[in-house]
């Protein structure tokens, strides 16, 4: 029996929030929820359970996902009170701040504090050689790596946006993602998903009933009785109603590698309505963790992520309030507890876990929503069109094969994320607290990362170090973190192999020359956001290139 001849395929998504509604909207668009012969998609969420909503940052992949769903970029920006994100500005991760250094929220370099930038643009290459080896050999002088190989650091440091209102939606001279209000984004995604044909049910799941093979037979709800589907997607957050409570899939903790397990969060206003909006996340390291600081149009979202083994909640709140200064006065913090890790399997039988139910890592480098995107894309690709109409043995065998493929890919992706996040901590030269000393202890570094670091001491990361389908972060991201943190790669023994120093020097000088032009040709970040909120993007017939380089 073909898909067209069989019964309509049904998906039941348990849980809303960003995970549920992003998955619902993407699958509705991809699998034709509003088309004859398409997939019937139902989402049930409880009105009693709120959105955690502290992860307000994304990675550039979100642009293609939103575009694929069909959401206009200007609409997304307005309705999510979103701003642009060009990377992450790290403060005090490499070295202990000077004893007399005051808490800093300033942009760029500040006396007594070390800093580096992880931009979203790839290192420039153009027609010349790869620049990293020549930077390592001193060809760019004392310029920081991100500053030497891309225009983006200069643009971000000047509080400029990555594009102009005349640039097309989701396209720009510089690579970017977003900061946004998580609650507002969930509302927008819900509206769009329903427009695309998703059936919305408000109700509470009271039981998950399994069949004789251990697959999900139906979901019992207080308000709507029994609900059944061909595929169940668990977006119920940390509760993990199906994957955890019903299917009993174990949770694998990475707490021995990634120590942080709590956060205190606080939203604060700007000191004035026209204050510059940083177009990057500011991640500042402290004694037992780090603070995030992101700029929306009307407020800042901030928080302190920390290890409860190295500090307590009261001290954590003190650290956050000291960082924020007067802006935090009279405002209550929100305490969140979590365990960095993931389910040992994400797809079991006819259930897939997406979002917090499948796994969670601290918000460093914005992996949360990116993993939701990956899951939604993979589910759309692997959706079991042929399952209905088969006998139970065939169905189980086909589902099991799909689950094995999905789990292998997602499992490797989680492992690689752990390595990348740990990289931020383990090569620190901070020794001022047990937290940083423990993070640098080789016993807390995964063997896979230890091996890579041993190799990268003599050659830089390259594409053959990575399997594309297992990676969330490409070699450039590793390079920005490694060399921003001051990691040493000794290329001197291979200097004779790098014979294009003159060409590389020309590229380094060209980027320094073009950077001021790029800054002057782009609007301030606040001007860009407010103009797009008012008028959207209005591209002319032909817009000039920014700075002459991409």
Automatic annotation (TrEMBL):
- Domain of life the protein comes from: Bacteria
Q: Which GO terms describe its molecular function?
A: monooxygenase activity; nucleotide binding
A Pfam family recorded for this sequence: Trp_halogenase
Sequence positions that bind L-tryptophan: 365
Alphabetical UniProt keywords = FAD, Flavoprotein, Nucleotide-binding
Query: What Gene3D superfamilies would the database entry show?
Result: FAD/NAD(P)-binding domain (3.50.50.60)
Active site positions, chain numbering: 85
Sequence positions that bind FAD: 16-19, 205, 356, 369
Entry binding sites for 7-chloro-L-tryptophan: 85
* Signal peptide extent: none
Task: Indicate whether Nucleotide-binding appears among the record's keywords.
Answer: yes
Task: From the Swiss-Prot or TrEMBL record, give the protein name.
Answer: Tryptophan halogenase
Where does this protein come from, organism-wise? Nitrospirillum viridazoti CBAmc
